[in-house]
Structure of Rho-GAP domain-containing protein:
Amino acid sequence: MIDLSYFQGGNCFSAMCFSYHLKKMFSCLQRCLNHKGLFRICGSVTKIKALKEKYDQGEEVDLVNEGDVNSIASLLKLFLNELPVAVIPDYLYNKSDMADRPGCTLRRLLSSLPKAHYSLFHFLIRFLVKVAAHSDENHMTMENLANVFGPTLFRPPLMLQSNDMLQNTSAKKKRKERHT
């Protein structure tokens, strides 16, 4: 059971009933683990918008008949992106110094997550391991999945994102200057 009551929002798509809808999305995607480009190929914007609107209005959604694999996968990513708080909250970024201390492990950091965050993270990771197990067919290796879900799970504050972009741009310029 995924207890996601912590993730409250202004509509059904991101409110408590999200646990039920999330399970339905995972269930549909579970049957399509061999689908080439799962999570990498975008679904129909029109379908995604229509499905999201139904969720937001509290209507029953028949993902099997109203969606397709790519739209359901895109809807799941959208859902995770629209959570009011990222699965791995930004306050963990302030604890980055913990990684330098002896005895501080990833498990210990994850155990500091609120229960709802940990439940969702654990459920999602277990699902993504299944997706990666079919990477020969779907081309979604662990690395590809990390590229797709990393920015969603670890939404750094805008300031950190801006600083990183500036630093990356400046570092690239310096490297380019050295090679010219």
Notes: The radius of gyration is 18 Å. Residues 12-179 form a domain with the Phosphatidylinositol 3-kinase; Chain A fold (CATH 1.10.555.10). The CA atoms of residues 73 and 165 lie 28 Å apart. Confidence is low (pLDDT under 50) at residues 1-16.
